[in-house]
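INFO batch 0412 | record 1 of 1 | parsing
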Amino acid sequence: MLQTFRRELSAFFSSITLNQPLLPDYSMNQQDLGSRYGPVFEWVTSFLNKADKQNSRAAAIMHLGAAEELMRHFQVLGFMGSSSTDTTSETIIMLLHRVISSVQRHMVMADITPLFMHKLQVFYQSRICFSAETSALKNSLCVRSWEDVLLVSVLKGQNVSGVRKDKGKKDVLIETISVVLLRTELLQRQCRYREVCRYLRVVLTDNPKL
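INFO prediction complete | emitting tokens
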């Protein structure tokens, strides 16, 4: 399914760029750009919708594969970073956020092994072309597995500070608000209320209201 997506996406870009300049035409208005690349975004969205119906491993792979191809094509075309293509860039970033959200959910909510999770993280950081606008998202999949030593010790009540020193290095339990919400959702679903309280007392996040 992913191979078919790659072929079709390449075909979309080939048909769009046929008889077009290699570099984007920055004089084009937003409506023209939207008309030109609308089918690409529709195709990617359709593929992500199909990916959402797969099992967790397949869905994560499909989402990251789609992100890799989309970012690569637009990076080659030079659209990311152009002030005159704000709408196009925003759409790309929106789709990347959707991929991140989906993969994060599978990492936390599904029965994914730490090894497979690590492979997903390596792929995301090494294979996806991050532009200046998306560089802040590069660490978005740095999610701790449920078997993480610090996380386990906090959930068991053995660590009440959320800080662990290992070989002179300080490890602090810091997670994005999206991951915090996913963890609390799963723990509550499993009626592990004491662990929810222990976790929320010590975890640090990017949301100051937590």
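INFO post-check: Confidence is low (pLDDT under 50) at residues 21-30.
INFO record closed
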